[in-house]
Structures are given as structure tokens and as C-alpha cells.
Structures
1.
Amino acid sequence: MVRVYRPYSNWFYLPTALIYGVLFLVPTFASLYFSLTRWSLFESKFIGFDNFKLFFQEPALVKGFTNTLIYAVVTSGSKVVLGLLLAVLLTSQIVARGYLRSVVFFPVLVSTIGIGLTFTVLMNPERGLINGALSVIGIDGPGWLTDPKWALLSVAAVDVWKGVGLATLIYIAGIVSIPREYVEAARVDGAGSWETFRRIVLPLSRPATVTVIILSLIGGLRSFDLIWAMTRGGPGFTSDVIASVIYKQYQAGFYGLSTAGNVVLFVVVTAVVLPLSWFLNRREVEL
Amino acid sequence: MTFRPGMRGAAVLAAGSLALTACSAGSLGSSDDSGGGPGSNTVTITYLIGNQDQDIKTANQLVKDFTAKNPTITVKTETRPAGSEGDNIVKTRLATGDMPDVFNYNTGSLFQAIAPQKNLVPLSDQPYLKDLDENFTKTVTADGQVYGVPGGGFMGGGVLYSIPVYTKLGLKPPTTWAEFMANNAKIKAAGGVAPVIQTYGETWTSQLFVLGDFHNVAAAEPDFADRYTKNQAKYATSPAALKGFEHTQAVHDAGYENKDFASAKLPDGLRMLAQGKGAHYPNLSGVVANMVSTHPEAAKNVGLFALPGDDASKNGLTVWTPGANYIPKTTTGDKLEAAKKFLAFFASPEGCASLSKAAAPTGPYAVKGCTLPDDVPQAIKDMQPYLDKEGGSSLALEFLSPVKGPSLEQITVEVGSGIRKAKDGAARYDEDVKKQAQQLGLAGW
């Protein structure tokens, strides 16, 4: 008999296995089952794939899908660009650098709901500070959260403001770890600031870029709290995302349907992020 | 093996006790509120209510008056959020057997959705049942059993209007939609006052043109509710039912809404109406008490008329039945007896008197022998002629049919903001109710 070396006896794993099973395995499989039922919490009836059919017929969902993609791409893209620019600024020799770094990071630490409620007040079309300030310089600001054209992008802008600190932090770490010799060698060869940034900082902070893109894209795809606090998917359904559509089904008592929605969300996030992560990481190895 | 057996035991024990503490955290709170145990004289019951100001005031007054009469019973109150979040909490607590001894919840379609036969204690054997208004008991009945006792007065869904604006411009309350729009045109031409107040910052307030129009629908198509339940009548295809959506759109298209309609909330709307900055506010008479407590002058300055339809002779008020108090099946023994006494108090004239003391009434009570005090606000007085007239009022659709979709408020916001056309909105609402009907397992869906 071959004895595999095991540092712990099987008994040692039991408590963890129990916790893992009860809190993770059972709910996962239960949710797969309940997504196939019409479930009122009091009783459930097996209905096959009807929930999924219904979910994809839900008119709010088509809107929710496009909105989710727009939201994820806009927030993720802005965080990459702004995060990189801020990181370059905050790694240069400027006064009060430590203080400025913490100021950029501060919004990350504040509660999302708090930020959402604050910006709802600031963005009020009639009494809000933002339109008040705009009217001083003669601009008639739109209803940031009440105009269907602006609602989603306004929320995305707040999301970027809140999340860019984390992206900046990751970029700072990436830029700081670039050996100074490269920059000095480039300087000797006559490269200016732009050339240094373009040829050295940008390519060598690629791992940071990959991390920022993946983290913010996952965050954007499953974003819910900020949107719920600011617009509740409104006006009407114009700023609904997948997660808020699911939550509304749950609120309405369609428990089977909303469970099916969560299964769909899981598949979508996996389908977007897995290939992307594989693609970005592969390029990194080749580099 | 490198580990000593003793160590292993300790580790398992540590992990085990961790799991144990995790378990007991979930059951906290249910063990310490049982009040007096067997042998002691007092019983403590818990009463779950909505967290709106009026709900809390009303509940506190009732508990005070009830316990003054029944010193051996103590009633503790607990609050829950209103709206769909509250629906969710009620369903979850019932499903997990965690419901307080008595709880307040909606009647009609929402009552049907909490599986009363399975979850609630039937009250059909209670002596006070004959004193309850039949319009009310119908909305808390499932399979021939009555489950609830009214927790307030009837409400009317109509148009609250500013009497000073009407007197100044020499207008009179309209009985047809055309007259209503003509009044709006005059108010707009006079300037300074928004003809129709809308407050889409609080989405539920957007539904009144549709829900409050049901008397007119029923007048035109008397069997609508029945056929609607059977999946034979639709909002989009019934000309009478579609009117509600068209009216919502018409008010927006004509530019009659207040400028900040998209972001204003209920208190903003009530303030505008009370101060005469808006002329009409389609809403439930349930908001009047709230308005009068912040703006006392509104008791005289604000009146109510039913939503006007096409035919002046059939004009009438759509009526909402009060929310009810229920006992879940999980309440047993002494607590059940105490809970039943508490409900009996609600169903007595003393209970109504207590309600009137707590807040301005929302409309007539559903208990026989209960009278409204003399100083009710004008808007509530204005409901009485409709109720006294034969065929002058109908129950809202949600009390005649269990079918009610969850997204109506978002749809009416879209229609009333010009994002979606009336016909399209109605069709979308028809899709929305389908899910609810299927969830309830109704025949024909």
C-alpha cells in the first residue's frame, strides 16, 4: 500500500468540511435546484427551465444587460486611465505627496450607500449643489439622476470617483516597482518624459493594468449598491442593471425567478472575466 | 504522525465550539421575549407594524388604550419597512416561523400572496366578525375563512385639490376628464401654480391615475375584475382600462406637472398642495393625516374629488380597504389568547376611538358602530357623498383580483415622464402581472 504523506489526519479536516458544506456547497446546489422551480418560500413547484425563459423575456433584462455592460466598461475604462494618470502624478516629486495619496484613497473607505445618498442630494436638479454651481457660470445643468439620458452615466461617474483610489494604489505599487535603472538609461539615451512614460512606465505596469481591469470589470458587472442607493434603477427602468433586476424580482416575491437570475449573472460574469483574464495574463507571459 | 493526540482533540474542540457559537447567534432574540412563563399572570405579545410615522403613532395609541383595559397583557411593538421591502420581510418571517404574535399587513392581493391558509390563524369563530364591514372581510378571506381585523379606516384614491386655488379662479370640482383638463388649462394660464403635482422621487405615488381610475373601468366594464383574474381582459386591450395610462401621459404631454416632478417626494408634494403652489395631487386619502400634522391649514384648504372619467353620471370614487392585523400560526397558548383579545379590541368602537385619537382618520371605519369625529379634514369629508350614493364607489382592483404586478410604479413613472407611451406601458404592465398570476398558480395563465 502506498502511503501518501499527509500532515493532518482526516478528523482535522472535518469541522472545516462541515462548515464549507453547510454554508457553501448546500446553498450552491440548492440555488441551482430552486432556480428550476416556482418558489414562494412556502412551497416550490418544479417547472424546468421556465424561469430562465421568463427571465430572458423580461423586457427590463435586455435593458439591464446593455446597461450592465455600458456601466462596467465605462467605469473600468475610466478607472484605468484616471488611475494611471493619478499614479504617475503621485509618484513624481510633488509636495505633500503622502497626504495627496491618502486623499485619493479616502473615498474607497467611505460607505457606498452614504456616498450614494450624498450624491443624490448634490445631483438634485433643482436644489442640488452641482446644478447650483453650474447655474452661476450660466449653464443649465440636466437632471443628473432623473433624466433617462444621464442617470446611468451619473451613477458611473460617482462609482469612478469612489473606486479610482484603489486603481491608483495598485498603479503606484506597479510604478514604484519599476527599477530606476531603466528610467535612467532611457534618460541617457535622450528620452523625454513622454517617451519614458510611453516606452517604460506603460509597458512595465502591465500587471497592474491587468489587475485593475479585472477587479473593476467584475465590480462593474455585479454593481448594485450604488445604483440602488441613487436611482433604484430609475427613472422607470432606464438605469437598471442585471443585479437590480434580480433584486426587484426577489422583492416582488418571485424567489425562483430571482434565483435563476443569479445563476445567469454568475454565468455572465464568468463568461466575461475568465477569457479576459486568460487573454491578459497570456500576453503578460509573452512579454 | 507528528501531532500529539491531545493537541488534535483540542483543535477539534476549538473548531466545534466555533461552529456552536455560530449557531446560537442566529437564534438570539427568540428566547428572551417570552414574557411571563407558566404560572405568572402577565403575557407579553409582540406586534409588528410598518415604520411610517403614522403607523407608529397609531400603534402606540392602540397599545396604550388596550393595555389600560387589559393590565395582564403587555404589547411590545416592532417595526418593518413599508413597500416591497416590507412584503419581503413579512414573507420571509412567516416562512421561517419567526413572525411576531400579531402583525399588520395589506389586504387584497398582497394578503393572498402570503399563503393565509398555511400561515395564519383563522378568525371565523370570533363574535365580532358580524360587526365588520363586508367590503373589508371579503379582502381578508381565503377559502371561506376570515383571517384579519381592520387596522384603520377605508381610504379613497382620488385627486386632492387646493380649495383656495379653485375659489380664486372660480373653478368647480370636475366630474369628467375633459372638465379636469379644462381646469388645468385655466390654472396654467393663470400662472404661478402647477396644475398637477407629481412626485416621482417616491415612485408609488405615480400610480394613482391608473389605480384610482378603477371605478370608471368597472362602470364601463362591470366584469373587468373577473375577466382580468381569468386572463381574459388586459389593460392594453380594454379601452376603459387603458384610460388610466393615457391620462398619466396626457398630463405630462400638456406640461401640467410641477417642474421638479421627476425628483420631488411625497412631503414636497404635500407641501406644494397645502401652500397652494400646486392645484391637484392625485393620491390616497391616507396621506391627508400626514399632511395635516405638518401643515394644519391643509385640514380646511385641501379637498378631494374622485378621478374623473368620461361619463359624469357614472363618476365615483375608487376605495382602498384598510390594512389588517393577522395572527400567524406560530402564536400559541396564552399568547394566542392575548393576541385574539388584542384583535377584538381593534374590532370594537373603543378601538376606532383610539385610532381617531392617534391621527386624523383616512376615511370611514370598517367596524359597525364606529363613527368619525366631527373635526375630520375637509378631504375626508368629501369622500362621504360618494360612499353614500348607490354605485358611487368601487373597491380598487387589487381587492377584487389577486393579480397585481410589482412594476406598475416604474411603468407609470416612465409613462408620466414621457419615456414610454401609454399603450406601450399598459402592454408592459400586462406582461408584469403574468408573473404574479403564475406565482399564485391561478388557472388560465
2.
Amino acid sequence: MHAVIEVGYLIATVSFIGGLKFMSSPKNAKSGNLLAAIGMVLAVCLTFIAAVSETVPYLNLIIMLLAIAIGTVIGKRLSSKVEMTGMPQLVSLFNATGGGCAMLLGLVEVNQMNLATALLGNKILLMAGLVTGAIALTGSIIAERKLAGKVKDNRSKTVIISARLLLTSLMVLPVLFFIGVIPISFPVFLYVLAVIAMTYGVLFVLPIGGADMPVVISLLNSITGIATAFAGFVYGNKAMIAGGIFVGAAGILLTLLMCKAMNRSLMKVLAGTFKKGKNAADEQEQDIKEISISETALALSFAQKIAIVPGYGLAVAQAQHICGQLQQLLEKRNAQVDYIIHPVAGRMPGHMNVLLAEANVAYARLKEMDEGNENMPQYDTVLVIGANDVVNPAAENNPDSPVYGMPIIRAHQSKQVVVMKRSMGKGYAGVQNELFGFDNCSILFGDAKASLQELVNQLKLI
Amino acid sequence: MEFLNQHIEEIYFVIFCVFIGIEVIANVPAILHTPLMSGANAISGVILVGAIIVMLRVPADDYLNLTLGGIAVFLGTLNISGGFFVTGRMLKMFNSKK
């Protein structure tokens, strides 16, 4: 029996690798997800069968079965109801459940362990899994609340200083405990640590700004993965270690990618600080050309190659569907329409792609930033919708600008740029956008969704 | 030292996993980063295996730990089922293209 279970874990581990591997192309990704899911079900079922074959009290089995049944049903419900714009919240929520599971696991395990014989290393691992799980739990819940707009950023000194104090105590207390300075039992010590870690999770996410959310979600995701790996170590369970490490790696990779795309260091994101733009007096007068909807429609109707640069403003206005309609209309007129997507467009990595896929945009039309930049001079018209900082040429040619160094979509190198904007307000970075002053750039004022609708109506008539 | 001795195999394993993980995930295109994250999230639900293992050893009259363990199993399952279902739903949108 033992060998069967070990082989089952091996198959599960391989299925995780395979599942992630298949994610490298949109065509195979679905089978990849299925493969990983099958591996997971196998691992869980085998563990459960092992449970039944041992002499386990019925009460424990009944509780487990009930918990699994309810968990499956609720998970399915939540995932089939969510709007694609709400995806970051849901992923955060599921991440919180993973962290919560890791924390509770640690709390229960400590009472089952033979403390007298347990190795110090195992105790440390158990503690590490519990602490990381607790941080992921509350951190993800706060992230979810912030994404839902229910909790505002809080950058007060008290929050930031308390967060640092708690982090320090999370590192110092275990050392003190293990050298024997703190006279409480190990289980009680873990309960205390869990409370501190949960509080830290809250305070660590609170000061982080809304636009930095993609970084935080990725980071919390990787923390949950690491918590899983710690727990796997405690049980010597390879499927858990592998699963945890893969998730940890994915999270860290995405975290660094997001930081790079925003030109922010991870430390600055975590500290919640932001370099402010120079004050208004320093800014040059810009000569801005306004364009009307009918002029834009005319320009689009003559263009052969069109690029759309979507930003989060597009998603906020719920305009992705009407944007899809505009594309279909233009394609019927034999124009080629591509979307050039900046890595930070949206509220989590790759979010914009999902929103556009939902609006029935073929994935072959979704271009990554580098590919779009290479072909930029060939585009007749570039339509910038709800994006600002990511098309600011100052990032490349003005070393004084706070956005300097951030990778951008070089819309200004195309033949004509139309920026759809609600007002002359500034982007997240609070800096003037040099693009607006360029000769080939004009601005279409108005609500993104209403303007797109009007564009579609007018194009139908042309 | 005894700890290292006992766990040396796992330590090798972790190191290999780190490299395989980075190698495999670095190849995922930006277009699929959201499904990658939610899929990875579901995989981290493998912690459920640990929750089941610990539930096997809780005495049937230890109600506090049974409750905590039960919640852990529930949360782990929610993580797995929700994660895979929602990833599947997203990927279906990428798949149904001509």
C-alpha cells in the first residue's frame, strides 16, 4: 500500500510539472490545467484511501469528507460566478484559503507531534510553514478587500512602523524561544506567533498602493507556495514540496517581472513609497491637439494596420466588449487590428489578456510589448484607451522623469496616435505625458465606453 | 546535523524543483500569466494532503483540533477546486478561437 501511495505522489508531481509546461502555449494550456487537476485529485484520493485503510476514528473521516464536499461545491460556485474583472480578487481569496490551510495545519500538527523527540529542524520548519501561511492568509484577505475597493491604502507612520516591529519580532522571538529564554511551551508559542504573523499580514499589505497590487498578489502567491513547501518538508512528502516550490518560483518570477515592468524595486513597493513627479512649475506648456469622434472614425476607416493599446481604464469602463466589436468591424473592412499589451495593464499579471479573450479577441491578435514595439512604425493608427504612463516617451528620453527607465509601448513611433482620455488628469505616476505634445498625437476626450460606442456607430455608416 | 542527515534527500529535491520550476515557468508567455497564477495557486492547494495526514492522527475526542483540522481540510479543498475550475474557465476563453 505504501508503495502505491508513493508512486501516486510521484505521478502527481510529474503532472504538476507537465501542467505548468503546457501553459507555455494558449492551445495546450487547457490540457495542462486538466493534467495538473487530475494529478491533484490522485494525490488527495490516495492520501484519503490510506486513511481509510488505517484505523482512523469515524468522526475524523466524516469531518474530512464533509469538509471536502463543501469545499468542492463552494469552489465551483465561486469560480463559475466571478466576472473576469473580478479575477484578481478571487485569486487573492483562493490564495488566502491556501495560506489559512497551511497555518491551521501547523497549529494542529504541533499538538500531535512528540515534542520530546522532535528534532529542532522539524520544529523550525513547522513554525516557518505556520508563519508564512498566516501572513499569506491575512495579507491576501486585505489584498482582496483593497482590490474590491472596500479598504483604502493606509500609509500612516503607525502602520508602517508597527509592521516593521512585528516583522522584527517574527524573526527575533523564535531565536529567543529556541535558546530557552521564553518560558512557554512550544504549542503556546506557536499560537502567539500565529497571531503576530496574522497581524503582520494585515499591516504589510495596508500601505501598498493600488497600482502596485499586481506585485503584491504575485508575492502573496509565492508566500503560500513556500508555506506549502515547508509543510511538505515536515511530512517528507515530495508532492507537497514540489507543488509548493513550483508555486513559490512562479510567484517570485511574476513578482520580479511586474516590478521591472513598473520600474519599481520590490523594496519600494513593500515600503509603499513613490517618487513624486516634479511640481507643476517645472512642466512645459504642451500644445495639445484635440480630435473629434468622426475624425477618429475617418482615420480608422483609412488605416490598414491599427493597434490598440489598452490600459486598466478600459476595464474600469467595462469597455472591452465594445472594443471587441470595434475590432470586428475594422477587420471586416480588411484592416489588421492588433492589441499591444503592457505587462502591467490590469490588476494582476496578464489580466488584460483575459479580459480581451473574454471579449472574443483571438489570442493571435494579442501582442506583447516587445513585439508591438518592433513593428510600431508600420501601424497607421494607434488607439490608446485608458492607458497613460505606459506610453510616456519620457520614460526613455527624460532622465529627470520619475517614470524614466520604465519599459514603454512606443506608440509615438507610429504614424498617428489617438489617445482616448476622460480629462487631462495625470496617470498613476503623476507626471506629464510627453506623448500628448507630439505632432502625430491627438486626444479624443470623453468616457472610453461611450466614445467607443459612438466610434462603432459612425464606422457602420462610413 | 542529524536533521541534515535525515533530510538530505529532500534538500536535493528542493534544489532540483527550484530549477525545474523556474525553467518551466519562464517559458509561459505574458498572455497566460493570469491563468498561470491561478493554476499555480490551485497547485499550492496540495497542502490539503498535509491537512488530511494530520487529521488521521488527531484523537477523536480532541474537538478543538478536529475543528481546526476540519477547517484546514475545507480551506485546502476550496483552494484546489476553485483554483482549477476558474483556471479552466479562463483557458476555455482562450481556446474557443478560430
